[in-house]
Specification:
heterodimer; A: alpha/beta; Rossmann fold; four-stranded parallel beta sheet; 22 helices; globular; B: alpha/beta; 3 domains; five-stranded parallel beta sheet; 19 helices
Chain lengths: 517, 437
């Protein structure tokens, strides 16, 4: 039993949902109680997906346990096939249904539904979300690729992209960027999977010359199987950062039989980092934590392309612990392999970073410690699905990374002035960078009433501000802080207009009703 | 605006039989109520004994990590616990010991059962008894089930309160018994407003359950009466009734009408002079009417469809129908407590379709066919409906926003009106549903 406040990964069936939701024509029947339907909102709210994810939950209840939950499952399968007419049906159990041992795979086989059924065995009490996604993708590819021999005469420049998923970190834009880059290089990208692929597309995977794994957490297992079963080589260099993108293109060209050539500089990161303004980035201490792919890439960029000093590196993905340990050794730090966010917090405090690159979890830790932070990896939040084009991969990805890592930092000259005049009452060690001011948390919340009154006085310089009774003042403190200032101003304006003095709780609510529109 | 009076003893009218379909539910489980309970009861810590899914649910439903160290956590069961390689009770004891070491400020530790812990019949009540022997009175330990195979969303609070009452009775703290217990989680600001009204009405000895302090508070006596402030508290009401307290029947304090009726029921039960009642509520009621009037034009004659969520749906529908003039197309609720919502159902227009439980796919079809002006639904459905060009109001906000009482009546109306106002703003002042017709 493990005590957990926040988790980096969901259960494995959420990983399976991410694969189903990434693809077209796949429907997932999940044997699960009603509470598990919360997972829909990950897609509809965090990713702002415009349709419900293709998942049917059996939502069995306690009273079904006495009868047959297996029948509930079979009915849900039949209904889902009739209603959604998928090309393929995934079936599986969530943590609770796993305990019932209904065997969804076996039950689905007895149903004689008119579509291929791919059963999933995802041990909820051992494995986690990324493993579940990887396993689901692998099972789907095995089911649809099979052992049919590859065609003769495969063009050497044809390739597939494996790994991007729904709810993955910036996958949507990474795919656009990398496909564009590869097409410019003369490559023919056949299938991108699972994001946007159909089961029929999976069947076509062996018709390309080789595979490109962009997200090993999701597609490494599948790529290895395609190599073993069908002799398809794969590229596993992740094109995050300028250097890695160049190396990636070199490897891809070699596999595609294209002549090696120097890549012309197509990014701004290189020059921006070289420009003297960036001098102040030198040796900034940066703590990095995330999934393995993004954390390792971030450490390399930080160290080799931006001139930061890596003061901590870690991952929550034990499956990739070795890779992260190897990387950490290169920067002379000990890798932190943990999915306990309290342990990560302790490590961050101990490392005294000037910048944290992490997940949403580390963003919260950094916010509390008042250390600048940029998010580089899943688990994601609604903010990690920006409206603008913002890939992490390729040359444009490198540009995006430069901006999003450098922006939270205090600018060079500002930093100097702070060090020279430490006790300035407005700008001090506790203050955030001035260009971030609107986002900075209030430094001295106690000063709020006085400030607000001053603001109100400025707004109505001729009027006399009515004083507040103690009780009214206390009542005002119950108004959420982010609208409290407005409530105070409105009430004072109202009291002034009505000639009320002093402001009582009644006045507060009279004003509230008055301004309710 | 004239307020319709609620007949003291409303005859149950001919309500059409609720629609009941067995299919996929699209609702939260009872664990989700921890999101507000852990903020309300400030000396309690909620420890879910469950799976990674439970932890992930709480984190996702909580809007992803609002508080860096929340007053809830999950003891995640692992393979070795289930395979019998580790004694689950020993494991739980260790987790609790670690937690209390880290958070010595916890006065009450609440063990919360989940789907997996219920299925394997892990007895948390027994665990609580054992842990109390070690940690009480410094840390009191109680247990309840928030599992999704037994509870839907707000029913988690119901089970928590029932467990809290059982614990109070098991360890009576002595003191003066409460005259009135107001049952159901209310925002602090609402609780304070009601407290002031009770004082003006001359009612003393009022206790709120849950209060901000889990340890202090509730003493029940032979004359203690209680009133529900929330409609989802069947088990809690039964627990109080089993201990001799009598329930004051009323509709719920939503809107000016609901709040008046609710306060009047209390006054009637305690023999408060009606003239005094009228005098005390006159001003707040006028304010409520003033605030609500701003939004009535947005909601009048609008056709509203409710998906099931919190069991507050009949009360919200009554508010919309009677105070905002909206038309109701369907009122879905995860569960209808026949006695507790009888008053609400009696006030709904005759023939309004009521549904209990859910087959979400069929309900979505009905909703599309009815083509409402506003769909009140959960987070999983809202954006897909918006993408179809429909207007939705996510229902979870009714559980996370102060909406009860006179001073919040305008806010409640605003919650419904906001999506319609926003739609009008984004479509250049016109109503796209109108334009589509």
């Amino acid at each position: 039993m493990k005590l957990s406040m926040w988790t980096y990964e969901g259960p494995p069936h959420v990983g399976a949902m991410r694969i189903a939701a990434s693809m077209k024509g796949v429907h997932y029947v999940l044997h699960a109680p009603q509470g598990d339907t919360y997972a829909d909102l990950l897609f509809t709210m965090i990713e702002r997906r415009q349709s419900r994810p293709p998942v049917t939950y059996t939502t069995f209840q306690a009273r079904d346990l006495a009868g047959s939950t297996a029948d509930v499952f079979k009915q849900a399968c039949r209904d889902a096939v009739a209603r959604f007419a998928p090309d393929a049906l995934l079936v599986g159990a969530s943590c609770t249904a796993e305990l019932l041992q209904d065997d969804p795979g076996g039950l689905a086989r007895t149903l004689d539904v008119p579509v291929p059924v791919v059963p999933l065995e995802l041990p909820s009490y051992q494995k986690k979300e990324n493993w579940g996604a990887s396993e689901t993708f692998y099972r789907l590819v095995r089911a649809f690729v099979g052992r049919t021999p590859r065609p003769e005469n495969i063009p050497a420049n044809s390739c597939n992209i494996l790994g991007p998923t729904s709810l993955g970190f910036r996958c949507r834009d990474d795919v656009t960027e990398i496909v564009k880059l590869l097409t410019e290089e003369g490559l023919d990208v056949r299938v991108v999977a699972p994001l946007g692929a159909t089961p029929a597309d999976l069947a076509r995977l062996p018709e390309a010359a080789f595979n490109i794994v962009l997200y090993p957490e999701i597609a490494d297992v599948t790529a290895r199987w395609l190599k073993t079963a069908h002799g398809m080589p794969f590229v596993s260099t992740i094109p995050i950062g300028v250097g890695a993108t160049e190396q990636f293109l070199t490897e891809v060209r070699a596999l595609a039989g294209l002549p090696a050539r120097e890549t012309p500089c197509r990014d701004r990161l290189t020059w921006y980092s070289r420009s003297i303004d960036s001098n102040y980035l030198t040796n900034k201490r940066v703590f990095i934590f995330g999934d393995a792919t993004h954390a390792i890439a971030a450490a390399r960029i930080a160290s080799e392309e931006l001139g930061f000093r890596v003061c901590g590196l870690g991952t929550y993905m034990r499956e990739f612990a070795r890779d992260v340990r190897d990387a950490a050794a290169r920067y002379g730090v000990e890798a932190l392999i943990s999915d306990d966010h309290l342990e990560v917090e302790t490590a961050i405090i101990a490392a005294r970073p000037e910048l944290v690159l992490g997940t949403q979890m580390e963003r919260h830790i950094a916010k509390r410690l008042r250390v600048p932070c940029a998010v580089i990896s899943a688990p994601t939040h609604v903010q990690d699905f920006p409206a603008r084009y913002s890939p992490q991969m390729g040359f444009e990805g490198a540009n995006v990374i430069f901006d999003s890592w450098v922006h939270p930092l205090m600018m060079g000259l500002e930093e100097h002035l702070l060090q020279m005049f430490r006790d300035d009452f407005e700008f001090n060690d506790g203050a955030a960078a001035s260009h971030l001011h609107p986002q900075a948390p209030a430094v001295k919340p106690v000063a709020e009433p006085a400030q607000m009154t001053a603001a109100a006085a400025l707004a109505a310089p001729t009027g006399v501000i009515a004083s507040w009774t103690l009780e009214a003042e206390r009542e005002l403190q119950k108004v959420p802080f982010f609208v409290r200032g407005k409530a105070r101003r409105n009430t004072e304006l109202f009291a002034q207009g009505q000639g009320i003095h002093p402001i009582t709780v009644e006045t507060l609510y009279d004003a509230k009703a008055h301004f309710a529109r | 605006m004239s307020m319709p009076q609620l007949a003291a003893c409303a005859e149950p009218p001919a309500i059409t039989q609720p629609i009941r379909q067995r299919g996929q539910h699209e609702v939260f489980c009872g664990l989700t109520s921890i999101i507000w309970l852990h903020r309300k009861v400030q000396d309690a810590f909620f420890l879910v004994v469950g799976s990674r899914t439970c932890a992930h649910l709480l984190q996702s439903a909580a809007g992803v990590m609002i508080f860096s160290e929340p007053r809830f956590a999950t003891a995640i069961m692992e393979e070795r616990d289930l395979a019998g390689m580790a004694d689950m009770h020993d494991e739980l004891d260790n987790v609790v010991a670690r937690l209390l070491e880290r958070r010595p400020d916890i006065r009450m530790l609440v063990l919360v059962g989940s789907c997996p812990s219920e299925v394997i019949k892990f007895d948390l009540t027994r665990a609580a008894t054992r842990l109390n022997a070690v940690h009480a009175p410094r840390h009191r330990v109680i247990a309840y089930s928030g599992s999704g195979i037994e509870t839907t969303f707000t029913q988690g609070e119901d089970n928590f309160l029932a467990a809290l009452i059982a614990d109070k009775m098991a360890a009576p703290s002595g003191g003066t018994p409460a005259r009135l217990v107001v049952v159901g989680c209310l925002a602090d600001v609402v609780e304070d407003q009601f407290s002031r009204l009770f004082a003006e009405l001359g009612l003393n000895g009022v206790v709120f359950l849950p209060g901000r302090d889990a340890i202090k508070g509730l003493v029940l006596g032979p004359d203690t009466r209680f009133i529900l402030a929330q409609p989802y508290l069947g088990a809690t009401a039964a627990a109080l009734e089993a201990r001799g307290s009598r329930r004051i029947d009323s509709i719920f304090p939503l809107g000016a009408e609901g709040t008046s009726a609710w306060l009047r029921a209390i006054c009637t039960a305690f023999g408060v002079d009606m003239a005094r009642f009228d005098a005390v509520v006159a001003q707040p009621r006028r304010r409520a009417a003033e605030a609500m009037a701003h939004y009535r034009p947005w909601l009048e004659a609008r056709r509203v469809f409710f998906f099931p969520d919190s069991q507050m749906e009949p009360s919200l529908a009554r508010f919309l129908s009677r105070e905002m003039g909206s038309e109701l197309l369907e009122v879905g609720s995860p569960y209808l407590h026949r006695d507790h919502v009888a008053g609400e159902l009696a006030l709904l227009p005759a023939g309004v379709p009521i549904s209990e439980g859910q087959d979400v796919d069929l309900q979505i079809e009905r909703c599309r066919d009815a083509n409402p002006d506003l769909i009140v639904c959960g987070l999983g459905l809202a954006n897909p409906f918006e993408a179809e060009g429909r207007v939705s109001k996510w229902s979870i906000e009714f559980s996370f926003t102060p909406i009860q009482g006179f001073e919040q009546a305008g806010d409640l109306a605003e919650l419904f009106a906001r999506p319609l106002m926003r739609n009008a703003m984004l479509t250049g002042g016109g109503d796209r549903r109108e334009a589509a017709r």
